[in-house]
Amino acid sequence: MNYQPPVYLTPHMYITNEESEIIDALVDHHEMPKKFDTDKVISYFDGQNFCLVLYFANSQDRGFQMFVVNDFSVNVDELYLLSASLGSLLQKGISVHLLSQAKNRVDNLIHMSGTFRALFGKKEIID
Q1: How many Å apart are CA 44 and CA 40, to the nearest integer?
Q2: What is the chain's Cα-based Rg?
Q3: Short-list 21, 24, 54, CA closest to 38
Q4: Among 39, 89, 98, 112, which is most exposed with the fewest C-beta within 10 angstroms?
Q5: pLDDT tens digits, one per residue of 74-93
């Protein structure tokens, strides 16, 4: 994998493949995988941010990729964009099992966004 600085896809969502940042975050949130022989989808909350980590075990493209949606409960459009992007990759047949799991997690979070807004004391979705 080529390592690049985080890329903001929208003002509230970025993607990174900087493994040291991703591994540090996984360790801090007690989400670090024990084995690295299969693809993995890991999701967790960092405060009010949603983090979706994909681990690709394929030896030609091994490594981590992380999407972060800042203040996800009110930035639901970013969740829809992430879901659509994962769906597009699925239609192309790319890492079907891994990306299906990732898309399901994002879709479930979209459906729960109202609950999280209430939990966080937010009243509106940000446009």
Answers
A1: 13
A2: 14
A3: 54
A4: 112
A5: 999 999 999 999 999 999 99
